[in-house]
């Protein structure tokens, strides 16, 4: 397979309702996917991710902008002529055809010889571990097996670009875990450029080289899973990916990259990159709950941390974590402590010292 780059250049999609009123589903999206890269479009329902994918596939017309596969502008190219295939949420297998015939169908449309078809299908079956199922009908397969057949049917066409539209949403939770690992393994093995749509954060984080977080038809941030989680660019990204505490304060003192910020709970120190904030500026800061630690008394020699006093308002055992809500001067902070079996568990009403690392506080406005 010859993987191709995908480049969306200022792509916008508008729809008109029955009264002629225009609404914008996707607005001025710019994105470059490198050959062989796995990129996920992630966001809530109605954010424009599926519409964007359908424009790449050619199923939706573009209002303005261009889409390139490699050096070729495919804006006005029909779906059947684009060097891409899509794996749908519903699998879309032919119920009257065997697994073998489902996978071979596209090759027969291309009028390939039976010998070449057999060679290509068997090669894909080896990658997908489907040889033992070739004679079965779709109704005789589990959901995960049907998903593998749908993927095999797409890959056997040797496309330059592979598209996924919420492919695991019909599977149960345990099978989703297995299939996302399987899809990622196969994608890396064949080296195909992949654009994947999901609203599931765990899928995006575990499978992607990069994640595109979308909101209201626009891209909020593009980055690796680590960058998206640890360095959210906006309040929306910080709140949508994982969980976060949000504090609103005013910068009162600036020393190089370290700033003092006045929050309702007191004046806290934090780091900013470059000239991200100025004195007197109102800012919004996100803090991940797992970055905060609780102590019986103020820890000694814990450099690079803000230490404040609070009271435990909630303490819930969640298996891998103990989840707390701590009140500090009328402000509630969520705190997640890992491995609660081996760590001290604090109880409701207990006074604690709260340690907040400077570098865990991210400006998101």
From TrEMBL:
Residues 6-241 form the ABC transporter domain. It catalyses: ATP + H2O + polyamine-[polyamine-binding protein]Side 1 = ADP + phosphate + polyamineSide 2 + [polyamine-binding protein]Side 1. InterPro entries: AAA+_ATPase, ABC_SmlMolc_Importer, ABC_transporter-like_ATP-bd, ABC_transporter-like_CS, Mo/tungstate-bd_C_term_dom, P-loop_NTPase, PotA-like, Transp-assoc_OB_typ2. Keywords: ATP-binding, Cell membrane, Membrane, Nucleotide-binding, Translocase, Transport. It is an enzyme of class 7 (translocase). Pfam families: ABC_tran, TOBE_2. Its EC number is 7.6.2.11. SUPFAM superfamilies: MOP-like, P-loop containing nucleoside triphosphate hydrolases. One of its GO terms (molecular function) is ATP binding. NCBIfam families: potA. The complex is composed of two ATP-binding proteins (PotA), two transmembrane proteins (PotB and PotC) and a solute-binding protein (PotD). Belongs to the ABC transporter superfamily. Spermidine/putrescine importer (TC 3.A.1.11.1) family. Part of the ABC transporter complex PotABCD involved in spermidine/putrescine import. Responsible for energy coupling to the transport system. This is Spermidine/putrescine import ATP-binding protein PotA. The gene is potA.
